[in-house]
Amino acid sequence: MYLRRLYRKRWLGIPGDYWLLIGLALVLLLIVPRLATPNLLTILILANIWAMLAMSWDILSGYTGQISFGHSFFFGIGGYTSGLLALYLKLSPWLTIWLGGLAAAIGGLLIALPALRLRGPYLALITLLAALVADRVARFLRIETAGAEGALYGIPPLSFSWTDNYYYSTGLMLLVALFLITVARSKMGEVFEAIRDDEEAAGAAGLNTAKFKILAFAISGFVAGLSGAFLAHYMMIVSPRQHFDLDLSVEAIIAAVLGGMGTITGPIAGGYFLVLIREYLRPFGVWRVFALTVLTLLVLFFLPRGFWTELRIRLAQLWTKSFAGKRA
Amino acid sequence: MKPILELDRLRKSFGGLCAVNNLSFSVQAGEILGFIGPNGAGKTTAFNLIMGVYRPDAGRILFKGRDISGWPTYKIVNLGIARTFQIARPFHHKTVVKNVEISTIENALFARENRAARWEASCLCCDRVGLADDVDKLPGALPHAGLRRLEVAKALGTEPDLVLFDEPFAGLSIAEVEEMSELIRKLPGEGRTVVIVDHNMRGLMRLVDRVVVIHFGEKLAEGAPEAVAQNPLVQEAYLAGGGMA
Q1: Would the CB atoms of B91 and A201 count as touching at under 8 Å?
Q2: Min distance B45 CA to chain A CA atoms (Å)
Q3: Considering only alpha carbons, which residue of chain A is nearest residue B79?
Q4: What are residue B58's DSSP bridge partners?
Q5: Which of chain B's residues have a Cβ under 8 Å away from the Cβ of A6?
Q6: Would you kindly state where each structural domain of chain A is located, as residue ranges?
Q7: How far is Cα B35 from Cα B233, in angstroms, rounded to an integer?
Q8: Is B82 in Cβ contact with A201 (below 8 Å)?
Q9: Whole-angstrom Cα distance, residue A232 to residue A219?
Q10: Contact B105/A4, CB-based, under 8 Å?
């Protein structure tokens, strides 16, 4: 209930989610670059990419309830498409990352077709298998590159400078967030949520649920592909290990669930949190995976709505309480 | 009077079980039709066939003169049939008025739409079923009778010409049944046709204009409520006359 009210709340006629974005933009573009070390900047580039991946999972699985266990499928398609086009057709990376997103959106359409007939665990299995098959196929690719097992090296970067890449990734992440929040707040988002709650009832309300599910897959695929493409040009490499790994799919889910499913802003927080923890716990080796997993379990158990959502609710409650106190 | 809905020799089996067999009847525009039968007679299956949840094995369904058998649900709804579910199925994470608003959304993505008008229409629907004070509540906060009203509001939100009620009185108190009947009775006056499914004829007797009785998926009797209640075949089906009154 609080969440609902929170979302409807407007200040100066602008909904709260957009204020969050504006705040985030100010912090990431004006404050962070002045304070951050180069090392932190490189980590934040990854955080931006993972935030995009988590958001893409959220618009599909958090909003429509079509749970995907294979988001690396889209991530990888984006990365490979963009990488191949830039490497062999010498297209500008500024163009190819969008083409990568587009290719992944088409991949989303392909997955959506079986998804119209399958539900729940069967759908999750299809997405998982798609990612595994894509991983195998990529390993068979033996293009004249130095790399073994389907890796592509020497992909032209957007820029060689860390700072540039930081600004580009932040800009792209904010753009994606703006797009997805707008989608989620539109009638499309309303329909997605209705499908999640009860698909048959949504049909009985006169909604073409198949069409909206396909749309959700395409949008989600586009954003995931975009993030994969950005990673390819940032690391200047595409490989199955980096782009189709199962860990990616799992991390997308963990980030979105940690922050709060079905909120778009939650997965940004979750993506940042996940990458920061992962990178700063690097010295601890395997234990960091363990720590991250345990942490996710704890959040699932104690804050099932996600830490970011929980934080917003608490703050809103505090705000109303103190406001009511002053009045009395 | 012209029939708005016609079922023509409809058949549907699940495995070896024939749930609906050779079922034909028609619904006249503007009437309130009771569609009754003992438990397991195939009433809900017939509803699901009309709504496109199942595809009939044989037979046709004509609505406004068009054959809608095999159509997807949303097209049937947009042509003018709405249903309520036997067990209320609200969108649990949306407020009452938002639940109704879902019914007013159009499928076209870039259609010019007036959100304020949709909102207003949804609020009106809530008001009509007596949920005006509950528009901002979540469905979980509504009592059972409130959920049943919400089902009606969601159906009316689609602007239907024909409303199918699946056991609208289940679990309601006598006073609540009366209120729900009152609500249904108003619909023909707005140019809407009503079909009510129930296994219990008692509550329907004074509400419906006409009754169709089915048993084991086949039509058993059809006619005015009093005449049907006296029909020996119908009394036989209902435990040798025990269930009727």
Answers
A1: yes
A2: 15
A3: A206
A4: B11
A5: none
A6: 2-327
A7: 16
A8: no
A9: 20
A10: no
Per the CB < 8 Å rule, is B90 touching A201? yes
Dist CA B192 CA B206 (whole Å): 18
Q: How far is CA B77 from the centre of its chain?
A: 12
Q: Which of B78, B91, B158 sits opposite A197 (nearest CB)?
A: B91
- Going residue by residue through chain A (328 aa), what tens digit of pLDDT does each one get? 455 555 556 666 677 788 888 888 888 888 888 888 888 999 999 999 999 999 999 999 999 999 999 999 999 999 999 999 999 899 999 999 999 999 999 999 999 988 888 877 888 899 999 999 998 888 887 665 555 677 888 889 998 988 999 999 999 999 999 999 999 998 999 999 999 999 999 999 999 999 999 999 999 999 999 999 999 999 999 988 888 988 899 999 999 999 999 999 999 999 999 999 888 888 887 888 888 888 888 988 999 899 998 898 888 888 777 766 555 4
A197/B107 CB distance under 8 A: no
Distance from CA of A204 to the nearest CA of B (A): 6
User: Which among B74, B82, B102 has CB closest to A190?
Assistant: B102
**CA dist., res. B103 & res. B107, Å (int):** 11
Three-state SS at A242? helix
pTM: 0.90
Q: Please check whether residue B169 is in contact with residue B145, taking contact to mean a CB–CB distance below 8 angstroms.
A: no
